[in-house]
Design brief:
- The protein is an alpha/beta fold.
- It has one domain: Rossmann fold (3-Layer(aba) Sandwich).
- The protein contains four helices and six strands; from the N terminus they run E-H-E-H-E-H-E-H-E-E.
- Strands 3-2-1-4-6-5 form a six-stranded mixed sheet, sandwiched between helices.
- The longest helix is centred in the middle third of the chain and has 16 residues.
Length: about 150
């Protein structure tokens, strides 16, 4: 069951950052069933499965009459010394910033993501905690477990 740390007012328009994975598709369906007015943002990272995931998200958006924004990574060549994940994250958030017109952007991070990220960071000497809000980025599902 999805539980939110905070709720968006029913009249608030927002954007869901949607990867096409189980977590983000469940969040989109949660908001659709709740009668929320939202848009979807899909960022294509140029990975082998990215086009297939984009097609899945586009079909869902079309079937549910949800506006979809599409972004594409600017280059598949990452800077030296930067992990692929960090490069993709930086590119994705730069694009999300470019489409943001003052609407909250919801990411679908959950408790498992937060714990995994923290433990991985600890093992590498760079522990970090995922914040529930960071400017226009909001993560209302950080207390929900993946299979909760």
């Amino acid at each position: 069951m999805l539980q939110q740390l905070f709720k968006l007012p029913r009249t608030t328009d927002f954007i869901v950052a949607c990867s096409g994975g189980v977590d983000s598709m469940a969040v989109c369906d949660f908001y659709r069933r709740g009668g929320k007015s939202f848009q979807i943002a899909y960022f294509n990272h140029g990975t082998p499965q990215a086009d297939q995931m984009e097609s899945l998200v586009a079909a869902w958006a079309l079937n549910n009459q949800v506006v979809m924004h599409r972004g594409l990574i600017s280059s598949t060549t990452k800077p030296k010394g930067v992990s692929p994940e960090e490069y993709w994250r930086n590119e994705r958030y730069a694009w999300l910033n470019s489409i943001n017109d003052g609407k909250p952007i919801i990411t679908c991070h959950h408790l498992n993501d937060a714990v995994e990220g923290y433990l991985f960071g600890c093992l590498n000497g760079t522990p970090k905690v995922i914040c529930s809000t960071n400017g226009y980025i909001q993560r209302p599902f950080l207390t929900t477990t993946k299979h909760g």
